[in-house]
Amino acid sequence: MDRNEIFERLNGVFRDVFDDSSITVGEDTTAADIDGWDSLMHITLISAVEDEFGVSFNMRDVVKMKNVGDMADLIENEA
Amino acid sequence: MNPALQWPFDAQLILKKRRSLRRELLADGTPRLHKRVAVLGGSTTHDVTATLELFLLDAGIEPEFYESEFGLYYEDAMFGEELETFRPEIVYIHTSLRNIPVFPVPGDSEEAVEEKLRAVYGRFEAMWRRLGERFAAPIIQNNFEMPFYRLLGNRDAWDHRGRVSFVTRLNELFARYARSHTGFYLNDINYLSADYGLSRWSDPLYWHMYKYCLCLDAVPALAYNVANIVKSVYGKKKKALVLDLDNTLWGGVVGDDGVEGIEIGHETSMGQVYSEFQRYVKELAGYGVMLNVDSKNDEANAWAGLQHPEGTLRPEDFIVLKANWEPKDLNFQEIARELNILPESMVFVDDNPAERAIVTGQLPDVAAPALDAPEHYIAAIDKNGYFEVTELSGDDLTRNDMYKANLQRAALEKSFASYTDYLLSLDMRAKIGPFEPVYIPRIAQLTNKSNQFNLTTRRYTESEMRAVAADPQYLTLYGKLTDRFGDNGVITVVLGRLAGETVEIELWLMSCRVLKRNMEHAMLDALAESARRAGAHTLRGYYYKTAKNAMVRDFYRDFGFTLVSRNGEDTVWELDITDYAAKNHVIRLED
Prior knowledge:
The complex is a heterodimer of chains A (79) and B (591). Chain A has 79 residues and is mostly helical. Chain A contains four helices and no strands. Chain B is α/β, with parallel strands linked by helices. Chain B has helices at 11-16, 18-27, 46-58, 73-79, 81-86, 110-134, 163-180, 189-196, 198-201, 204-210, 219-233, 254-261, 269-286, 299-306, 328-339, 353-362, 377-382, 394-413, 419-425, 440-449, 462-470, 519-533, 555-558, and strands spanning 33-41, 61-67, 90-94, 139-142, 184-187, 240-243, 290-296, 320-324, 346-349, 428-433, 474-483, 486-499, 502-510, 538-543, 562-567, 570-576, 587-590. In chain B, helix 20 (440-449) crosses helix 21. The interface between A and B is medium-sized, with 16 and 18 residues.
């Protein structure tokens, strides 16, 4: 899976979770960039990403995650 | 009904798409019951509340939520002022193993453990009692899931110091409270977590990362279970099963294979599976679920199949038996009509996906669980929670008999010259009087279940009903009806509020199984009598139109009331009772 494809699929997950079809995420996207991405929605988001890519993040990874680029790295490593 | 929210649902899909699901549900134009629900959590409740909202919206209930601040369930229940202002109609206490403050330690004597048990339990009981004093709201309380580790291994289950033993004993104390208090319901997360898989349910990541006491994926299952209790409290549970026969209640086609050829009984493993399913269906009937048949068969074959010597279900276990070649949706509607209940309160059980599609295509609000292999039939019905029991009255236990007696009455009706002759022949006896404590659960249940013969459609919980019964401003009347075919139980309720010389009739409802028996005449006589005794001269009745109560639109007019005002389709009526003459001449009153 190349990085573009990961971001393509991440876009789909973000759009579902935040119910906003205009969202496009990139390497540097953070919670501050997306309306409604608070700590509670973060849980839903992580769970939906895990489900989408069939991966399971461990706690340390989730704790260190700073932006969507980090998320894509984890997916690349896990997949 | 939204397909994404029916069991077996895709939990991840619900969590991921909950915003758009919510948007679609709110936009679908369904009229919904508005309810204020307080969620008091001992852990994070965000997604619990969000998914609970979806399941309730799908069931015709629009919740407004109050969520306590993180972990402050106890403080809120005992003292919360904001909760006071919110005036909850349902309180859900979402606690878990993580909220047990002390456990036994190695040096503890049996007495020391007993002491700890009392301390942990006592705090919960004090909270329930306090909530009961503050609000007339049903309480839904989680019991505890089992610990996810066992310090003593298997010994943990029986040694007094074992945590498994400690939690099991706590759960029994919770259950004991539930047995002795009405309006208190356990949300059995001990069962749910076992069913889901305790190790996955208790994944510590979710607690340490997010302060969830269960894994996120299990949240919809939890919320669904809570929603079932709420639905049942407000009368939105199912009442009847409509069953196919061939390959549903037995293996094979009785018309082709003959009675000897169908699979039922302990001769073969397939036969055993169908037997277990028949037993399950019969056990449901024991708790008041009404059984009916909707089968494409010649009637003689259907009867023969149901009389198979190895079968558990017998023709007499069913109320309406439709075995013919009509389309199944027509039979289905006809069954609803004969039972006098709404089609959506019946569940269609058929192994054939095409038949299910026909029925749900014509009747979109009807539930028809997907049945794949017969060994999964029981789970397909059971896990849906269609028949979640929150109140269990004597009526529930004898309902099948009562409905059968009704059909015998219908047969008798045909042989009389006049309707009055027929009514007299029924030898009807009624007991009418002010509410008695023993009937309050049934009375509250009726206010939540009756939709058609219901003038104002006000819903009451048991606790609210108790409060009304104790209020001297209220004239309360219940009616029980017995006839030569059996006891119908409590089937009608009238509530009047005394306002000077007028009695405002706030509630008048009757179960549809006693329609056209003149019971309402007897009730009006009793109401007029008790109103006069209270010094009133006028009865004022209200009709509030709903989607389902058109049958009583002209109720007050038919009784000689005068229309005094109108607001759209809602009407207000008055009757002067100074010269009231009794209307009932066919029912004998018992003291």
